[in-house]
């Protein structure tokens, strides 16, 4: 059999490691955190990114649209990993902006649009696609005011056009009025130099105007003739694109808080309502746990601790009878241990990322930073995955620790990778910018095989070297027969209870997260997310411990898998709510975006299941060890 020479294998390993580390380093690329100063007459670049819609989850690169004006040579901007995965395709435009100089009307180009391209434009306008342009790392925004008409807020992006559904006519926005808001910054060190300015706002006011091929539209007319598109399918159409620029001095906002207008969501009261609702649910569960655990459990412990307890009374008591079976290794423990390890890995990644965002370290100016940092942390947390998987595998008397480590490192990530790759094939066919490029797929694979998997094995090595977690009781050789269970402990009822209660804690916050993910809206309420997350963890632990305690009292010792499944059972409600959001909030009529939404929602629900299933499992494990340590056994 042919074998590669050793030097080839070493070179390949080195290439994989260098590419992986290079991508990880690129993921932490952060733009300049300080303000960029412009002087009078200095050229200010304008970048175009993508077009997105709140009705369908497929974005498109702006310069992939055949009906827009494009430069002769596209100059693309370096993107970090998070930007690539979220569908960003930032490119320098041919709009000419000069700091401090107003431009009344500039002709960009006259574009001859073919019938098929005009139909594409009409379809995008009907679906309310918004264009994202960028100046000084600020996205162009549509402005609006809140109820008191005094506070200006921004909605990122501006529409490609508008559609009259009564006449089935689409109108293209072929003129844009750009308002650049700036803050004057005097140069105290060089008094004679021109005054500098920092950009604090970027507003876009699009117009649809029917104009000729050689000049600008007559913008003094109150209602100029609009530019229809995609309504005549048998001939081409010539459209002149133009723009005007106005520099506006704004002293009401500084460079430090220029993102406040983008992040002013106006739903703070709803978030507080969600927090109060979650707190009440948690308090109610805490009361139930207090009654059950402090009264019933203390009574049971007092009875079990009496040395003069009669033999016939022992036979009538519930959970102590399971002392010889409660720590019996579960069936398919070789599968449960890797799932628990991956759950710990996802939990540490999600918790650390959310905490960094809540502390303001991951600011919105770091485009794609949240996703980049999350992926890097997921890779680095592989060592925790291998460690806890190996420790539980050793508890269940497993000996093939390396095999368990390989399953931990490749099973769950493999499921995610195969699902994303399969969906990506369909997205590629739609020419959407959310399709992951082949090079990025290669880098992700190299990172997985070159960094994440070795870290999992390293964590498993250390976990296997630890002492086996001791149990307060010994396990009998013959398992105890399980009596018929009460109706409320049957799987469907228990799953509904343990899933519905935690979902009631997070369903309000879930709406805003889904809106941010699928409708490309900014979400920066991470302080609320931290609070809701803590309440959710407490709720999951409480409801799972209560159900498992009732199960033990009913003499059912098979709790390992049940605690894991009960803890993550609200993932079912999360997926169902996601599909409800899909049918009520999105207007998807094509197969590919529907497939992408469904598969990604399933993966998100699966990740939640692993996270909180692991939280519930380890909490229940600790609880059961404690109660059996507190009783006297003959």
TrEMBL record:
Location relative to the cell: Golgi apparatus; Membrane
GO cellular component terms, semicolon-separated: Golgi apparatus; membrane
Topology of this chain in the membrane: Multi-pass membrane protein
Tagged with keyword ATP-binding: no
Superkingdom of source: Eukaryota
Residues annotated as transmembrane: 272-294, 346-363, 369-389, 401-428, 440-462, 487-512, 524-552, 564-583, 595-624
Region forming the signal peptide: 1-27
Alphabetical UniProt keywords: Golgi apparatus, Membrane, Signal, Transmembrane, Transmembrane helix
Principal cellular location given in the protein's record: Golgi
BP-aspect Gene Ontology terms: protein localization to membrane
InterPro entries: EMP70 (IPR004240)
Family of the protein in this entry: Belongs to the nonaspanin (TM9SF) (TC 9.A.2) family.
Protein name (database record): Transmembrane 9 superfamily member
């Amino acid at each position: 059999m042919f074998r590669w020479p050793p030097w080839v294998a070493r070179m390949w390993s080195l290439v994989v490691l260098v590419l992986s580390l290079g991508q990880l380093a690129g993921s932490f690329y952060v733009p300049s955190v300080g303000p960029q100063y412009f002087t009078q007459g200095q050229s200010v670049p304008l970048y175009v990114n993508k077009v997105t819609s709140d009705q369908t989850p497929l974005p498109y690169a702006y310069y992939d649209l055949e009906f827009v004006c494009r430069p002769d040579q596209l100059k693309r901007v370096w993107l970090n990993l998070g930007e690539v995965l979220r569908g960003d395709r930032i490119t320098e435009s041919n709009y000419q902006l000069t700091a401090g100089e107003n431009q009344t009307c500039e002709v960009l180009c006259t574009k001859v649009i073919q019938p098929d391209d005009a139909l594409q434009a009409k379809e995008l306008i009907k679906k309310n696609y918004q264009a994202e342009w960028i100046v000084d790392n600020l996205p162009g925004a549509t402005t609006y005011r809140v109820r008191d008409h005094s506070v200006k807020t921004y909605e990122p992006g501006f529409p490609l056009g508008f559609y009259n559904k009564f006449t089935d006519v689409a109108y293209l926005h072929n003129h844009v009025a750009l308002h650049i808001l700036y803050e004057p910054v005097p140069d105290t060190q060089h008094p004679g130099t021109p005054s500098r300015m920092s950009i604090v706002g970027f507003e876009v006011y699009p117009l649809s105007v029917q104009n000729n091929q050689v000049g600008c539209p007559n913008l003094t007319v109150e209602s100029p003739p609009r530019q229809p598109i995609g309504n005549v399918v048998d001939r081409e159409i010539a459209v002149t694109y133009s723009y005007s620029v106005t520099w506006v001095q704004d002293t009401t906002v500084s460079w430090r808080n220029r993102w406040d207008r983008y992040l002013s969501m106006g739903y703070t009261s709803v978030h507080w309502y969600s927090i109060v609702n979650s707190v009440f649910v948690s308090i109610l569960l805490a009361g139930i746990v207090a009654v059950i655990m402090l009264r019933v459990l203390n009574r049971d412990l007092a009875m079990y601790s009496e040395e003069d307890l009669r033999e016939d009374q022992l036979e009538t008591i519930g959970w102590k009878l399971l002392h010889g079976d409660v720590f019996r290794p579960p069936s398919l423990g070789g599968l449960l241990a890797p799932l628990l390890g991956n759950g710990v890995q996802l939990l540490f990644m999600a918790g650390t990322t959310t905490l960094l965002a809540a502390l303001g370290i991951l600011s919105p100016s770091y485009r794609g930073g949240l996703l980049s940092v999350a992926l890097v942390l997921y890779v680095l947390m592989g060592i925790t995955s291998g460690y806890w998987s190996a420790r539980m595998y050793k508890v269940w008397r497993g000996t093939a620790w390396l095999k368990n480590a390989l399953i931990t490192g490749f099973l769950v990530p493999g499921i995610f990778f195969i699902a994303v790759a399969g969906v990506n094939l369909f997205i590629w066919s739609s020419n959407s910018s959310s399709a992951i490029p082949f090079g990025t797929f290669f880098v992700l694979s190299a990172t997985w095989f070159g960094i994440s998997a070795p870290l999992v094995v390293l964590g498993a090595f250390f976990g296997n070297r630890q002492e086996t977690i001791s149990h307060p009781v010994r396990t009998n050789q013959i398992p105890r027969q399980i009596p018929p269970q009460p109706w409320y402990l049957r799987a469907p009822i228990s799953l509904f209870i343990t899933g519905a209660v935690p979902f009631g804690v997070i369903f309000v916050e879930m709406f805003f997260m889904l809106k941010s993910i699928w409708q490309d809206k900014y979400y920066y309420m991470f302080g609320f997310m931290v609070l809701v997350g803590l309440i959710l963890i407490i709720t999951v632990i409480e409801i799972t411990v209560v159900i498992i305690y009732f199960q033990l009292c009913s003499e059912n010792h098979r709790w390992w898998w049940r605690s894991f499944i009960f803890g993550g059972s609200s993932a079912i409600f999360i997926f169902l709510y996601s599909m409800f959001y899909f049918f009520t909030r999105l207007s998807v009529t094509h197969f590919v975006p529907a497939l992408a939404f469904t598969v990604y929602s399933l993966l998100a629900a699966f990740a939640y299941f692993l996270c909180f299933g692991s939280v519930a499992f380890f909490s229940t494990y600790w609880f059961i060890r404690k109660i059996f340590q507190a009783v006297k056994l003959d």
